[in-house]
Each structure stands twice: as C-alpha cells, then as structure tokens.
Write a structure and sequence with these properties.
Blueprint: E1 5-9, H1 20-28, E2 31-34, H2 36-42, E3 48-51, H3 56-66, E4 72-76, H4 86-92, E5 98-101, H5 106-114, E6 121-125, E7 143-147, H6 154-162, E8 171-176, E9 184-189, H7 190-193, E10 203-207
Parallel strand pairs: 1-4, 1-5, 2-3, 2-4, 6-7
Antiparallel strand pairs: 7-10, 8-9, 8-10
Length: 208
C-alpha cells in the first residue's frame, strides 16, 4: 500500500511562522518535495529532496515512485488552500492517503504586518491572469490583498486600478520577502506605486 503524502503549508517563508505539526512531519519523513528556496530552508542532510520546477509531470512521477517505499512531504509556500499545488496534488494522487497541514498565507501575513483586519478585504491573485472586472471595482473603504507576478507587478496593478476609477490618493503598500531578515516594504499612494520597481513576486495591499 502507498505511504502517506503530506501537503504542508510553510507560511510566508521563515520557519518561525510555520505550525508545529508541519515541522514535526518534515523532521520525520525521509523525502521532501518543494521549491529550491523551501528545500534550502527546511531540508536536512538526511533528507532526499526533489525540487519542483515547471515540469509538474516529472515531479508527479517522482512522488508516485517514491510513495511506494516512504512517506513524502510536499512543501508549499503560504497556506495550502490559497493558490497552492493542493488542487493538482489531490487530482493526481486521489488514490493515496493524504494529510494537509495549513499554513499562513503571505496575504494575511501582510495584513498582520500593517495591523489591519482582512475579514473585509477582497483577496485576489494577479498570478498569470488579470482578475475579473467585478473584483477590481472601486468601492469607498474597499481593501484589496493582491499577489503579484512579473507581468502584473505593483506598478502594473496600480495602473489597472486607477484605470478603473480608483482614486490616485488611495493608500498602497507592497511587500517583498515577507518574514525574512531582508523583508522589504514600501508605502505610498496608488499614484506613487506606478513608479515603484520590482515587487514581481510580492504582496500588495490596497487600503481604499
């Protein structure tokens, strides 16, 4: 019978912000699968590792082969239920035992950095997509928590929002490398954010 496939949310990145259950599983299993950064942070010399690349089928074959002899932990950034590999893994490995351990998403962590509640925020992703128009509609007091990518970086998001009627004076905050020692935060308005460089794999919070 196949061993257990663990899907573990490692939070924003730094091990201090990972739930103890996830750490316990990582210490116990012999095989870790994850991004190079995640493996660099959590893998020990005793672990066999597999770095996740764009070739997911290759990663899936590795997991399938090695589940025959050992438990495996797949490390996903942020929370397992928020734009992670979980849907793909559930579909691909629906025939094996699976345990999912949640983490802290980078978006909710960003709101915490600002001391802001996010229960009334609209959480959207610009990863490889432009969100639906109804997600970008301006309302007074509307908060947004946004994931960025190389195309839709902080500056591009500011352009998209102002082009849809968001006031240029609305407060905007962008975060890179949340939870790490070199964490970078920049604050200003939407008009300011148009000029910001970087923030291609980041979190943007808009406080409308």
């Amino acid at each position: 019978m196949a061993h257990t496939l663990y899907v573990i949310g490692i939070g924003p990145g730094h091990p201090d912000y990972m739930v103890p259950r996830g750490k316990q599983i990582i210490d116990r299993v012999p095989i870790l699968v994850g991004s190079e950064r995640a493996l660099g942070d959590f893998a020990k010399a005793s672990h066999e590792t597999k770095a996740i690349t764009g070739r997911l089928q290759e990663t899936a074959r590795f997991i399938e082969d090695h589940l025959q002899t050992a438990d495996i932990a797949v490390l996903v950034s942020g929370d397992t239920g928020y734009y992670s590999l979980l849907p793909y893994l559930k579909k691909t490995f629906n025939h094996v035992p699976m345990e999912v351990v949640p983490g802290i998403s980078s978006v909710t962590f960003a709101f915490a950095r600002l001391g802001e509640a996010w229960q009334d925020a609209r959480l959207i992703s610009f990863h490889g997509r432009l969100p639906k128009e109804d997600q970008l509609v301006y309302q007074v007091g509307q908060k947004l928590g946004c994931l960025t990518d190389k195309t839709y970086n902080a500056a591009r998001i500011a352009q998209e929002l102002m082009g849809r009627g968001w006031p240029k004076t609305v407060k905007a905050v962008a975060f890179e490398r949340l939870s790490y020692e070199d964490e970078h935060c920049q604050e200003g308005t939407l008009a300011d954010m148009v000029q910001w460089t970087g923030f291609t794999h980041a979190v943007v919070v808009i406080l409308g």
